[in-house]
Amino acid sequence: MKQDVRKTLEYDRIVAFLRDEAGSLQGKELAERLEPTGDFDEAQERLEETAQALAVLNAAPPPLGGIRDIREPVAKAAKDAVLDPEELTEIMSSLYAMRQVKRFFKELDDDAAPTLKAWAQSIEILGQLERDLENTIDEHGTLRDDATVELARLRQGIRTAQRRIKESLSSILRSTENQKLFQDAIVTMREDRYVIPVKQEYRSRFPGIVHDQSSTGATLFIEPLAVVNLNNDVKQLRLEEEQEIRRILQKLSARIGREGAVLLANSEILARLDFTFARAKLARRMRATRPEMNREGRTVLKQARHPLIAPDQVVPVDIFLGEKNRVLLVTGPNTGGKTVAMKTLGLLSLMAQSGCFIPAAAGSELALYQRVYADIGDEQSIEQSLSTFSAHMKYLVGALEEAEAGDLLLLDEVGAGTDPEEGAALAMAILEQLLAIGASVVATTHYSSLKTFAYSRDGIENACVEFDAESLRPTYRLLFGIPGASNAFAISQRLGLSRSLILRAQELIAADHAQFEQVISGLEKEKRLYEQMNAEIEERRRRARSLEEKLAKMKQELAEKKTAVLRSARQESAALLRRTRRESEEIIQALKEQFNDQGVKKRQQAIQEAREKLAEAAEDVRPGFSSNPAYKNPIDLSRLRAGDTVYVTTLDQKGTVLNVQGRDLELQLGSLKTFVKAQDCRFVSPAAPSEDTAARQTAAAMFLQKTTNAVRELDIRGLMVDEGEQVVGKFLDDAALAGLKQVLIIHGKGTGALRKGIHAYLRRHRSVRDFNFADMDEGGTGATVVNLKA
């Protein structure tokens, strides 16, 4: 890409954004070397890498911290140079980053980021080297005392000797005889040796070696003779320590030199990952989307935003190029947004071919352009004696010589800067040649003849920047299919030009030109009207689709609820049938026990009758039964008495019998008395008995209700042991009263605490004969079958 295009389209600012997002020095260098590619597959690969990085970044950011530039120290180590602890610390930090990055991508799903995972898998972990560095150097870049046994011995010896020196010096300082000799009762260092500041006049009275004196000469820094040998020992030990440190560093440096190729390869992978995630971070910051690339020269940008304009100021624009026409001729007033639209197209094309997402709506498409040319702005040069027209023409001459099919040319004010007729003619010829070679072109102009030229040539489409005639301001939107009026008179009037001058100018302009401008203005208004109508239609379609989706969702939810209700009813019915079968077997068993062998026929008849009754009961609880059955008992006129309750089928109401007159009944229906046919009535219940009889019947009914409603199964899951004992006790009493021989208690499995507590309770209950775990189809160890005493 030519430098003038980078400068014109401000591509370098995008590179600067990427450099800021990168965390490592090598990643920043990759950003600075970024160039758009003209290879379709490579552009797709770059975009796919960015897409994978953005998906990972949105889920959990990778551990890319701690990456250092280790190329120079690795190169030094390869030449047998000894690295200092700071350089070793940088290598240790990078080794840690390599291990963390590889572990991070290893834990990702296989289909999450396959390309980035493949990069990370190729990182070779030098675990032993990393451990050796960690065991030798601490986080501050200092060699550890326990790096080697010898270094630990030397440093321990230094500390012991220093402690003995300090003790000896402290004894000298505390001596009462020497107090007047000292300038200050302190111990300090001179030339790595411990000394005491002594007054000049007492030099002869304090034996020792003078190492320094104060600036005034009043104080001498003397090493007492008593610690000279100890200081010599410290000096010797420090020399040995330096030799041991150098030996350790030399050994580690040689190891790094041998692993240099692996370290550099790993660093390149980390840098590539860092740069890829820098593109992803920029995409997230710009709220950018991935464009669809194509080889057909088709560009469809939806709601595209110039990335260098503040988000609160930029106006999104739609740009269509290459679908039907490869040349787009944009007209309209100055400051209307023509140049910004061209720069947006050019810069977004370069970004996409560099692997960056673009700030545009999802579904945008971009053609892959081999080269991009941009002749935008005033390029006049005093030094080169070039006018505006000459500067533009010089650029166009070079572009025409190089341009080929698949290139993109952005030409601002093509043919401007000279005589309008000659400039327009040159512009037409240039556009015809570019159209002939198959290049894509976006050009701006103010020439009216070019507007009509676009109508008469296939492959060229008019477009204009929209201008609001009422507010006399541009809307910065592109309108396709119609040329734009320059609106020079309207703009001049808004800027304050006198009304008389504008009227005079309108008189001087050619009549056909004025009519042409009026037609254009009318077309713009009609297009805005149609766009508004289309927007309303689209909104209605969107609402209709939303309602359809909502309705379909409601239907699905109703169907699911219906299925769930039916499933639950079937399960409950199946449970009732199982319970009924068990009770039938119990009744049959009881009947068998009550008969002796002599009454075989009677016994079989009783058993058959019991089975038929139980079959009828089971039939009543099968799925699909009605919750409101009709009364079926017919009226027996010979037994019907006043006060009996009957059901009138024709009126769907209950009534009380007042009088029986042949086959007609006088009934009280609420506050209404009426006569109905006996055949239209069904018997419900007899008249209420007297108080004594009612009491006896009530007690009998309660006993019968308990006997009839007694159930064989009890579910106590979720209860505490003491709560379960109370519920089980009442359940067993009701079951014994109803004459049940066997019941089922469901207590669940869980921790077994509830089961143990209930079993202990059953052992001491008066009605329990024995108990065992239920069969597998009834719950296994999660339920207990209890046999009751007769």
Structure report:
The protein has 790 residues and is α/β, with parallel strands linked by helices. Helix content is 51%, strand content 16%. Strands 10-11-12-8-13-14 form a six-stranded mixed sheet, with helices on both faces. A five-stranded antiparallel sheet has the order 18-17-16-15-19, with no helix packed on it. A hairpin with a 4-residue loop joins strand 15 (645-648) and strand 16 (653-661). The longest helix has 84 residues, at 511-594. It is flat, with a radius of gyration of 50 Å. The protein starts with a helix and ends with a strand.
Sum up the overall morphology in one term.
flat
Give a count of the beta strands, DSSP E runs of length 2 or more: 23
Distance between the termini: 102 Å
Structural class: alpha/beta
Question: What's the arrangement of strands in the largest beta sheet?
Answer: 10-11-12-8-13-14
Oligomer: single chain
Average pLDDT, all residues: 82
Core attributes:
790 residues, alpha/beta, 5-stranded antiparallel beta sheet, 23 strands, flat, 22 helices
Topology:
Blueprint: H1 3-9, H2 11-21, H3 25-32, H4 40-59, H5 71-78, H6 85-106, H7 114-121, H8 127-136, H9 149-174, E1 188-190, E2 193-199, E3 208-213, E4 219-224, H10 228-258, H11 260-286, E5 292-294, E6 299-304, E7 317-321, E8 327-331, H12 338-353, E9 365-367, E10 372-375, H13 388-402, E11 408-411, H14 420-437, E12 440-445, H15 448-455, E13 460-468, E14 473-480, H16 488-494, H17 499-508, H18 511-594, H19 600-620, E15 645-648, E16 653-661, E17 664-669, E18 672-677, E19 681-685, H20 691-709, E20 713-715, H21 721-737, E21 742-746, H22 753-763, E22 768-773, E23 783-788
Parallel strand pairs: 5-9, 8-12, 8-13, 10-11, 11-12, 20-21
Antiparallel strand pairs: 1-2, 2-4, 3-4, 6-7, 13-14, 15-16, 15-19, 16-17, 17-18, 21-23, 22-23
Helix pairs in contact: 2-3, 2-11, 3-11, 4-11, 5-10, 5-11, 6-7, 6-8, 6-11, 8-10, 9-10, 18-19, 21-22
